[in-house]
Amino acid sequence: MAKFRTRLLKMLILGFKQLQDPYYQGFAAQVSFFLLLSIVPIFLLMTQLLGLFDISVESALKLIEAYTGKEMSGMLRQLFEFKSAGFSSVIFAAIALWAGSRASFAIMRITNYTLTGGRSTGRNYFVERFRAIKTIIITIFTIVFSLIILAYGKLILELALSVLGLDSQTYADNIWMWLRWVLGFVLYFLMVSYNYYLLPTERVQFRKMLPGSLFASVGMLLVTLCYSRYANSLADYDLLYGALSSVVAILFWFYLLSWVLCLGVLCIKVWDDTKEKEQVSKRTPVNL
């Protein structure tokens, strides 16, 4: 236990030193801006995919509300009030992917910069942009899959209870109330882990990626829960920003999530660095 505390302290010191690098300044704001630009086209593209499984926009927003609170889902609903026709066209899909890949590209650059110790931000610009588009496509399908699981999870649970001979009406609601948070964390973890695997130019082994993925998954879940409570009870953006209150609130949420993703990458770096130092110290012979 003492060794773990020592290692944790070393990780905090290394992480703090890394964050002094000016390259990290403004990173979260940049990612938040690109996420805000991409949220409407990406969400509407997702609804086209969800429509194949008979899940409407309203149903998707209700699922989001279960994890982010009424205030956050209400803000998203306001953003999607005005939409034109033709969103299923190839041109719209291309625009949505290009807009979404900007945020993925920014995260990719900071990931490469962190894991290489500041030596590189990636390969050729166009190669990295293509990788960013591929990453956002996989992320969209991951989110759609998550929403499908959450939409039909209770129905699947009721069928499973019926097969086991249990009263689904008695147990389903209570079990699902807790199970959906477990599923939410697992889906967060899978999405973060897959992104951490795809983003670096040089692949990171899963065992090295695990601490950062756990940190980011728990952090994103906690940030979403805490911010939804804050938005529901304390924040009154209408007084300062008027009609832009929804945009500002979502931008601030994205800003916090961006920092969590960055700290998750940093956790992978310092975890691996402290492990290497421990192994070197064990191999170093003691001169008598």
Key terms:
288 residues; mainly alpha; 81% helix; globular
**Category by helix and strand content:** mainly alpha
Q: Give the count of helical stretches.
A: 10
Number of strands: 0
Low-pLDDT segments: none
Membrane topology: Multi-pass membrane protein
Pfam families: Virul_fac_BrkB (PF03631)
Subcellular location: Cell membrane
Protein name: YihY/virulence factor BrkB family protein
What's this, in brief?
By secondary structure, this protein is mainly alpha-helical.
List the helices and strands and how they pair.
Layout: H1 2-19, H2 27-51, H3 57-68, H4 70-79, H5 90-115, H6 125-163, H7 168-198, H8 206-233, H9 238-241, H10 245-283
Helix pairs in contact: 1-10, 2-5, 2-6, 2-10, 3-4, 4-10, 5-6, 5-10, 6-7, 7-8, 8-10
Fold and architecture overview:
With 288 residues, this protein is mostly helical. The chain has one domain (26-271). The protein contains 10 helices and no strands. The protein is globular, with a radius of gyration of 21 Å. The protein starts with a helix and ends in a 5-residue tail after the last helix. The relative contact order is 0.13. It is found in: Cell membrane.
